[in-house]
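PROTOCOL LOG
Step 1. Enter all chains and additional molecules of the complex.
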Amino acid sequence: MKVLDEYLKTIEKELNQTKREVKTEEIGFVNEVHDGVTLLSGLQNVTYGEIIEFQSGSRGLVIDLTEESVGAIILGDYLNIREGDTAKATGMTLSVPVSGDLLGRVIDPIGQPVDGKNKIKPEKFNPIEKIAPGVVFRKPVVVPVQTGIKAIDALVPIGRGQRELIIGDRGTGKTTIALDTILNQKNENLICIYCAIGQKRSKVASTVELLRKSGALEYTVVVTASASDSATLQYLAPYAASAIGEYFMEKGKDALVVYDDLTKHAWAYRQISLVLRRPAGREAYPGDIFYLHSRLLERACRLNEEMGGGSLTALPIIETLEGDLSAYIPTNVISITDGQISLETDLFNAGVRPAINVGLSVSRVGANAQTKAMKQVAGKLKLDLAQYRDMAAFSQFESDLDEQTKNFLNRGARMTQILKQKKNYPYSLAQEVVVIWAASNGYLDKLALDKVEEFENKLLDNLKTSGKPLLDRIQKNKKLEEKDEQELKKIVLDNLE
Amino acid sequence: MKIDPTIKEDLKEYFKDRMRLVKEKVIITSAYELSDQEKKTIISSLGLPNGKIEYKVDTRLVAGVIITYGSKIIDVSLKGQLQNFKHILYESA
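Step 2. Run joint prediction.
Step 3. Record the structure below.
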């Protein structure tokens, strides 16, 4: 009863208020409706990046202010907007709801769930567009992202806060590398965000299913703007994913965002720009296409302790045509990121999977983040592979080779063999170290090439049972000590027989 | 049709002038025909210039008025209030 009384009192108070707040609002009229874009008149005092609300209830985002008209991209359904409709300025900028509830969910770029579950309960709203943290708020990248892929962790290591591009033709396993990395983050305290841009819904569904089955969905957020969504949503998706990542980063956590892929993002932005009649440049992309990606990827960083010490790692994906790395968008993104993992069709078809071209792949900051154990074994591996590449090209024309060259070729072939890895089967750090150690110390030199995989499986099986203490020790200490190597040598030799 | 470049600038100026007139126009839309007394109250309370005001009737407003001048709008109609309410309910649900 008491509650009811209080309610009545409030209502009475409201009714007695003679002064009512009257708000002046900005309105405009729809002049043109294009594919996901409208041009309006009016809206004299609207700001860039402001949300406007159409008569039909749809919302738009102002991204073009000219002398006579205002250009806005429509968020969601634009079929119910007609010429002459009014649009109201709301005075808000576009933001996504963020909270811990997002983990395990599939949402669209404006924060609406698309997995058929409840609405996201927001803790706060993070603006989609945000200026990246300044220089003084950052610190160097020193903590590794354990991808669980031997070739990457050994040769192109990725650090938390780094931006590493995954580039290659279609069907070379770009998404697989990104997904394997996500799968390997169980118990690694790294929150993952998978942003699907312009992909088939069936592919997104199978990705989500894979994550769910492997128990990876509980620390993952999926942001999707599929091929059937408007170009507007595809354009906004990576920024929304980044905003979600920043929420976790600002809480002092580590987050990883996969943008799959930025080629389609550039296409979506090109479409919007052309419809807005902005001048077209090379390959019909607008002039600010570089800034489109640089401002997105610049948001990846490692914050210093005063800012909470969180990090945001970015793994953008770019699809090339015929392996052409010097096309417009690939060169742009290569220059923005801190290195790239280059995948090749020829290698893929030759059975080298992941099809990483070791010569073209680099990581500009990751070496500082590599664990001691990996550094110990990877140094030699890198050298061996580099020599192998030199010799292999050179020796194609020679029939009789000297002993040393033969040895290089032999070692290199086994190294290449040992870096092959099955899909969705990430390794732990200790497993990677052990396998690479065995190869780079020459224990496999006498083994037939087709027996390498068999040996690897046998070795890992044995280590899982009898060598468990050793594996645990390497995993914990993150380095190889003298006695570890002695023990390892014994186990490897046992397995070779 | 091609426009002679010599008169293009003048034409632009003329259209701008016309646009300015439209922009300055005040439209008051109400749910029913306003009495002179009511009109006077609205005009004096908002400090609008008398004369260049267009009155419209739209029964869909149910009650209250909407005042439009240029790209600005003051919505004190029941319809607007209800729409706002609906919005708040949807957002908080």
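Step 4. Note key features.
Chain A has three domains: 23-91, 95-369, 372-494.
The CA atoms of residues 85 and 469 of chain A lie 71 Å apart.
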